[in-house]
Amino acid sequence: MSGHRRLPVDFDLGLVASDIDGTLLLDWQPISEATIDAIHRCQREGIPFVLVTGRPIRWLAPIAEQIPDLGRVVCLNGAVVYDIASESVVDAHTLGHAEVVEIVSAISGEHPEAHFAFETLTGLFIDDGFATRSPRDATVIGDISEIADRDVVKILVSLGTEDSAALHDLLGPLVTRSCHATFSDPVNGLVELAPRGITKAKTLESVCDHLGVGQEQVMAFGDMPNDVEMLSWAGHGVAMGNALDIVKESADAVTDAVEDDGVAHYLTAMLDALPAR
């Protein structure tokens, strides 16, 4: 870990929270054995390891196959808490249909070229022009009235461009009073909208309350702007070496890049430094 900021001193580690993509794994590859070993060591020492991701529930299956004993996962940028063991939703923050209509109308009014996808508790719904990496998982709709009775937990917006940061800056002011806007990939040209006030940090806080873990005991890892609130909130936030600069600036430390097992290296060093339990 040469060249990186030092480990925290006298840190009472009570829980580790981690993003998935760009943090635990890269480009949909399996999680490395080194990282899995570090996670299992953490669990053996009685320290919960909680995934906090923008992924929808249906994209958690490959993770569950590698690490089936993870328990509760914060997904969809904080909108849903899902229990891997029981394959059930523990908690969900949804957007009412009137809110969905308001958001779509606000964006479409200024940008008629916009296309939308709607993550719900029962699947993905997209308009006819929305390009998705998993079209077989999606149901195409002609009008948002078709999802009036669905529990929408995240809206994705595309203008057909690639710069997600620029798109966030463009669309964020249009919806700031009705939802929380962020992005998790700088070049996929998508902005992700969650219910107002819902972030990874907000829902992680409720998970920690449930487990009896204090904010000051949380170590969190992340790499993208949807991780910023979590890294700032945690007692010790760690950005990946491959993280965007804005993420590194919000963290207390920087570890190696995901391809170099940054989480495994930092977490192992932290566990080695802890007094015997």
UniProtKB/TrEMBL annotation:
UniProt cross-references to InterPro entries, sorted A to Z: Cof, HAD-like_sf, HAD-SF_hydro_IIB, HAD_sf
Superkingdom of origin organism: Bacteria
GO CC annotation: cytosol
Record field: transmembrane: none
Alphabetically ordered keywords of this record: Hydrolase
PANTHER family cross-referenced by the UniProt entry: HAD SUPERFAMILY HYDROLASE-LIKE, TYPE 3 (PTHR10000:SF8), PHOSPHOSERINE PHOSPHATASE (PTHR10000)
Protein name: Hydrolase
Organism: Brevibacterium casei
